Amino acid sequence: MTDFQGIINSIHDHLSKEEVKGVVASYIPELSKQSVNSLGIFLQHLNGDSFAAGDADIPFSIQSISKVLALSKAIAFEDNRIWQRVDVEPSGNPFNHLSLLELENGIPRNPLINSGALVVADILVTHLKNPKEDFLNYVRTIANDQTINYNKDVAASEKRTGYKNFAAANLLKSFSNLKNNVEDVLDFYFHQCSIDMTCAQLAKAFYLFANGGKCVNNVQQIPVSQAKRINAIMLTCGFYDEAGEFAFRVGLPGKSGVGGGIVAFLPNNFIISTWAPGLNPKGNSLLGMQALEQFTTQTKLSIF
Ligand code: GLU
In this predicted model, what pLDDT tens digit does every residue of 206-254 receive, in sequence order? Predict the structure, then answer.
């Protein structure tokens, strides 16, 4: 039996001493309040066991990680029609890149870059009666945790400075790939990104992707075939223009966010989440990536 607790403890202790920790995101001013010294690791095994190290119970801004949760909800409404409005190819470009969107006539490369996530947000604004409330309830349901909430300060902070997202939404609208008002879609998007979660909550929220669409309380939330597709998108597009590097070094599907969180999983086995707010130049958590690389190397558990 693998000593998961011993392994994540030693990874945590070793990485806490690292001097190079990356740079905390500041383009959303509220995020710059995070400490570069925070480091949390949480492992949720599908057999029910869980293991925590460091700051695994401190809430942080999940940011882009929310795009996967939004996608899983949008697919429930649109099924495969969604792929007429957003593609499934890695972009090889930063998450907020714009010129490709214009070149490709307003069809975003994939649902995990900002333009693609805005199309997904548009679908949710169309189908949900009270979009912000209903989406939050969905996240609480799949994580089996009613305490999860939006962080209004983070949402407002991004609304004030989200110039590139305003540009992307307007570009999408000009190509008729946004059905609702630009302001409504952005308001929803900034809120979805502002959700605060701990590493422990994040691992539980992603349980369904590791478990063939069945969430932590055993309810089938999405069909097995859709879980397979979303997992493929996480593997190929989940880490900005560093998805290849993440697959190469870690070997798990997952998603990162500029709040410093990463969640990754081995299907039918475990979900592991990390939080370390210092980012590398590509926008992924520097220590989080190192922690996951060390974890899959030491345990020899990856999809490859
Ligand atoms: N809300 C952030 C943005 O749209 C999310 C970015 C991220 O985590 O990658 O810029």
Answer: 999 999 999 999 999 999 999 999 999 999 999 988 999 999 999 999 9
Residue nearest to atom 2 of ligand 1 (CA): 63
Is residue 287 within 8 Å of 12, Cβ to Cβ?
A: no
Residues with CB under 6 A from ligand 1: 63-64, 95-96, 114, 158, 165, 193, 257-258, 283
CA distance 261 to 55: 12
Query: Left if phi > 0, otherwise alpha if psi is -120 to 50, otherwise beta: which for 203?
Result: alpha
CATH number of the domain bearing residue 288: 3.40.710.10
| pLDDT tens for each residue of 19-31 | 999 999 999 999 9
Distance (Å, whole) CA 9 – CA 5: 6
Alpha carbons 41 and 12: distance in angstroms, whole number: 7
In the reported structure, the alpha carbon of residue 304 is separated from the centroid of ligand 1 by a whole-number distance in angstroms of 29
Q: What is the pTM of this model?
A: 0.97
Measured CA distances, 142 to 146, 151, 214, 222 (Å)? 10, 19, 9, 11
The answer to whether residue 304 is domain-embedded is: no
> Domain total for the chain?
1
* 210 within domain boundaries: yes
Task: Give me the chain's average pLDDT, please.
Answer: 96
Residue 237: which domain range?
4-299
Q: Which of 193, 237, 263 to mutate to test the pocket of ligand 1 (most atoms within 8 A of CB)?
A: 193
For 200, residues 6+ apart whose C-beta sits below 8 A from its C-beta are: 42, 44, 50, 52, 56, 57, 273
CA 69 to chain centre: 8
